[in-house]
Amino acid sequence: MRKKIVAGNWKMNKNLSEGLSLIESIKAGLANGQGAGVEVIVAPSYVTLTEAVKAAAGSAVKISAQNCHQEENGAYTGEISTGMIQAIGVEYVIIGHSERRQYFNESSASIAKKINASLAKGLKPIYCNGEVKEEREAGKHFEVVQRQMNDELFHLSAEEVKKVVIAYEPVWAIGTGLTASPDQAQEIHAFIRKLLSDKYSAAVAEEISILYGGSCKPDNAVEIFGKKDVDGGLIGGAALKAEDFLALVASF
Ligand code: PGA
Question: Which atom of ligand 1 is nearest to the CA of 11?
Answer without folding.
Answer: 8
